Please model this.
Amino acid sequence: MVGFHGTVGSAGEAAHLVPAVGRLSYGGDYNPEQWPEEVWPQDVALMREAGVNLVSVAVFGWAWLEPAPGEYTFDRLDRILDLLHDGGIRVDLATATASPPIWFSHAHPQTLPVDVDGRRLTYGSRQAICPSSPAYRSAATRLTEQLARRYHDHPALALWHVHNEYACHNAHCYCDVSAAAFRRWLGKRYDDLAALNDAWGTAFWSQTYTDWAQVQPPRATPTSSNPGQVLDWRRFSSDEHLACFIAERDLLHAISPGVPVTTNLMSASCANLDYWAWARELTGPDRLVSNDHYLVATDPREPPAQIAYAADLTRSFAGGPWLLMEHSTSAVNWQPRNLAKPAGQLIRDALGHVARGSEGAMYFQWRASRAGSEKWHSAMLPHAGTESKIWREVTRLGRHLAALADIEGSRTEAPVAVLLDYASGWAQEAPNQPSTDMTAFAEIARWHAALWRAGITADLAPPQADLTGYRLVLAPALYLIDDAAAVNLRGYVERGGTLLVGPYSGMVDEYDRVRPAPLPGALAGLLGIRVDEFHPLPAEKTVGLAVAAGPAGGTAGGPVGSTNPPTASGIDLLASGAIGLVWTESLEPAGAEVLARYVDGPVAGQPALTWHRVGAGLAWYAGTRLADGPLRTLLGALAGRTGVKPAHPVPPGVEAVRRRHTDGRSYLFLLNHTAAAAQVDAAGTAPLTGTDLLTGDRWAGTGTIPAGGVVVLAEQPSGTR
Ligand code: GAL
Model:
């Protein structure tokens, strides 16, 4: 039987993620170059008042540090690092390579990125860089080397911050330099042109390549580019940015050994980089995973569900603790309507990340800028100054993080894995699919949110990962699946796992070529089904689902257990008049049992939900996208059958997440997202006894979380007093 606690990555339980800080990190981006030096001592004094212990310095400071070619002026950086050190504040020192100075871009126009239409973009904002440019790469590593040599033994240095949000604005560059790099990358992937032609299916539309020189990026062309070419292009672009990171990282390791290196990812908002590949380069000795996260007002998910997804994903990249490098104290400035956070949300948001493995909370940025594009972005020290709601909450959060010292190194418990594969998402969201509504990345996040609403904490995992530790594995959107992943999923189920697969999965191989019949290709045998034809729904149309006639639907509820046959009363989603969205398909069981059928729509009467016993486990399939309500019901029911429980039973609007040390000490984070106080009680075997680390209050079987508040209960093991 599968065990309880799964992890994806390989990080060990280190005492301190950032050893030179030695506790949870607190601070933000600090841009002293935007301020006269007289302001700096005031900054340091206020940082101390707020409990700040780490700041990211010079993230966009290249022009400040190298005002003219090869002329490095470090005196001001020397002074601010000394000042910070004297104030007891550690530094996450940026390599400043995310935005070259104007003089550089002006002198090297070939380093500016070219878009898909062949338009060369210009300087004047940030990240105006072609990631494949040798001129950019050598200028960036020169600056990195200078910084590393000068500051590797500075006592304030705690962490190296490479670049900033790789690919945030320049995911793909279509210039000739990139084209040549793409050909070199393809040359390594495919032995010869015949293999490339085969992989890309170039017999179609007379696209056969007869010379490597003919191969180019998928630039604008009269109609859709070759999907295999686009898929490889996306892999290539991710690798090019990663190569930039590795070059800087390796220099830092060589010159500044023992100081951890990171780069800030955008786990939930950037699907342009294959972050599983990045995670391999960001874990291990002297490296750590860090992440930036911003709430999006138009996202259909609740703000804390957005945070939970970003944090769970980042923790999964790290395989353990990680660092929240940026988020916002209140409003951002880059959405159409930038919503301020109501009182209390600043603290809940930060501790929501901490509950899910972040070893601290950092912000963009320390002091609000007076000029530039981000002058109306919130900061720790807002334009309103210290007589402000934000400052009061910032100082309170500083005290809270100091009070949470004991949680460092503990791990968030997550008994479920949700599968995410970047190449699969890229292929599925390419043009010319059966329905543009069949998004991949948003659907994965939607399933995660359904679990979150059911109170269940999940990891994310690539489909090739070792899934042994998870009781339940979900594959919401796995259109592309390579052979290794197919074997992995079968093995997981055979050994007793429960797998639920969403529609349109298993269809194509790693080159985006349709797999041979029967559909769904790589997963047909495991799921015990045959798909005959897709019937996507017209926009906004839904279909009804009903309990299937026959044994599965007709029997009374049997005993709960992952290997017992499901019954209608065991999975009662159908009682609620479940509906499906976006997609249906005509489907025949080929070994699977049918739990639900469509009552209307293009394939009325056909199976919508099936299960298939394989070895010691069950493989479930949903042939439609269940609406949020029934999806939550189904996931909750599967969790129940597999023994997956919420961290603690809580009233609606309260979130419960547990972190645990390997020696058993555990911490229950209770976040009250409602405007009323919430009472939480002991339940069954969950005793709810311990001390709230934030207030020192004792809980003995019951307790109250203030409206909008947070409790972090250091749990007392049962049987002790
Ligand atoms: C991030 C970026 C920061 C700042 C922030 C604003 O993407 O790393 O430099 O621009 O967004 O929300």
In short: The pocket of beta-D-galactopyranose is lined by residues 164-165, 168, 292, 294, 326, 332, 364, 374, 377 (CB under 6 Å). Residues 1-13, 549-560 have pLDDT under 50 and may be disordered. The two ends are 34 Å apart (CA to CA). The first strand starts at residue 25 and ends at 30.
